[in-house]
Amino acid sequence: MAANKNKNILQVEKLSVRLSQELIIEDLSFCVDRGEHLTIIGPNGSGKTTLFKALIGVIPYTGTITWASDTVIGYVPQKLDIDRNLPLSLNDFLQSKNYHLKPTDLKKYLDLVHLSERLLPKPLGFLSGGEFQRAMMTLALIGDSNVLLFDEPTAGIDEPSEEEIYETMHRLQAEKGVTIITISHDLSLVNRYADNVLCLNRRGLCYGHPHEIANPSTLAKVFGTKRYKHYDHTHG
User: Fold this and answer.
1) 3-state DSSP: the chain helix, strand, coil percent, rounded to 5?
2) Nearest by Cα to 70 from 108, 34, 29, 105
3) What CA–CA distance (Å, rounded) separates 1 from 213?
4) Which end of the chain has fewer CB atoms at under 10 Å, N or C?
């Protein structure tokens, strides 16, 4: 079944996920509009990455996940299990996906994320954290993805690079109509860039505009009265 082509690109209804007999997500329902930026927040172990894995169909679940028929998904995991010190160039890395699709010029994807062609011959280990993250975005875009899923897109990179990554996502959303779904712990960036926020804590506790969700009472309910203070919703 396809989601409503005119508006929703994703509909999730009564989603539940068990891993090793443990209930991770229970009876979760939400939808995502075309061109929306949805951010998923929640404490460690609340099922954020598990939700992403269910959305891309790599783990079993009950309930329904319905993507629009024209959806092309690009997924950027929080951590890529690859040794960046391998003698693998950026070009080799990107072409590994390009070869399996209709071959196309990488330049248009590099331009979308403001990554220079001059980096293509460089080994992955020579890229900065921000450059490597943009390389991951390039990889996700190959094949003309219209939905991008980012699991902690700025983990482990410096603050200026964080801003660049989120600005790149925002530009893809604004100029190309790409739907963005992120997992993030940085609520200053969430408030600045997300259209809606989904809070997880084993089940969907709240959903709405970031300025409505990212407030002390809601965060205390999701993260705990002491833990939510680490999420500075007033910064920026």
Assistant:
1) 35, 25, 40
2) 34
3) 31
4) N
Check if the beta carbon of residue 176 is closer than 8 Å to that of residue 16. Answer: no
Residue with tokens 């005119």: 6
CA–CA dist 182, 36 (Å, integer): 11
Residue given tokens 């329902």 in the structure block = 29
The per-residue pLDDT for range 28-60, each reduced to its tens digit, is 999 999 999 999 988 888 899 999 999 999 999
The sheet with strand 8-19 has its strands ordered as: 22-33, 8-19, 62-67
* Domains contained in the chain, CATH given: 1-71+146-236 (3.40.50.300), 78-144 (no CATH)
CA distance linking residue 24 with residue 118, whole number of Å:
44
Half-sphere exposure of 157 (CA within 13 A, CB side): 21
Which tens digit of pLDDT belongs to each residue from 172-202?
A: 999 999 999 999 888 888 888 999 999 887 5
The strand pairing partners of 207, in sequence order, are: 198
